[in-house]
């Protein structure tokens, strides 16, 4: 992107201050078509170099692709945005609302009275939190004897191999009465198999990935399905040593027989993922008709939900990616929308973004005409040094965009 930026990044990777990194960016004019990849796939000896097609654990980068699948159902009039979907996800439908704890520390509940709609699931306003992110749910787990899940480990330590077993716990509020980041897109992913009868992985490939030229197996919930995978070696995970600040190899485990987790379960390369981002940027109709794709850039939160989310975004260190202060945020069918405020900087209104726990992120700015993504594999989530490099990459992309237009 610039020699100075690349040299700084390469030095930080070689020094094990930053992990192996893949960067991609494209603009509408065709003047920016950028790819950077540097570092070994793992920190073990003799690891091959990382490439744009190296398979990564994509975590919540999955959510955008699941959202496009759900919008395909809306486009086909199989689902409506404000339709009650509880009849398709029985385990979720049965969950009560966790109201607190009694004097003995036991959970207290009330029955859910409000329908759970597709809008609620797409926008994290259904009340479905993540047990490792919400203190109230962790306390519930302790009180009920449910072990806390251990990330990147085999089941049962992972929390379970199905959506029902991993995320079958109470809601935190009535749907539509708050905002909490959590498992709603995993539940939403279950709708696809329920309503189409298709295997989720096949539906994603046939209705999203193949339409933009992503080879079969390059992004998948089940990399073990393919006898001759078209991806390079799976990237290993790194973990930062708290004392030295340097990165070290982290052993991880994967359950090949997991269900397709629509909120977190995809594996894939950043290069293939860019094909999806670019199609959405261009609004080319390959995945979604323009009248359907607009849901990815339309604010969908109601006032009480929006207020709750913006309060959480005042301290966004729990999230991955550059999320500046001084911005009014909303949520679309696809992710976090930057709507207004001095903190926008060079971003335009309805800048769409999100990321994945293991320090990956993506963005699409339709008005500015640019999209990009960053891929790394670092535990734990939201590494401050990776976040700083994500911000610098975005700044360099917008600077390049300005020069390209002059």
UniProtKB/TrEMBL annotation:
Q: Where is the Beta-lactamase-related domain?
A: 31-384
Name the UniProt key words of this record, in alphabetical order: Hydrolase
Q: Is Hydrolase found in the keyword set?
A: yes
Concerning InterPro entries, the annotation shows: Beta-lactam-related, Beta-lactam/transpept-like, Diverse_Enzym_Activities
Q: Which domain of life is it from?
A: Eukaryota
A Gene Ontology MF term for this entry?
A: hydrolase activity
For this protein, the record's Gene3D superfamilies field holds: DD-peptidase/beta-lactamase superfamily
Q: Where is the signal peptide?
A: none
Q: Which PANTHER family match?
A: (LOVD), PUTATIVE (AFU_ORTHOLOGUE AFUA_5G00920)-RELATED, BETA-LACTAMASE-RELATED
User: Would you identify the family this protein belongs to, as annotated?
Assistant: Belongs to the class-A beta-lactamase family.
Protein name per Swiss-Prot or TrEMBL = Beta-lactamase/transpeptidase-like protein
In its UniProt entry, the species of origin is given as: Chaetomium fimeti
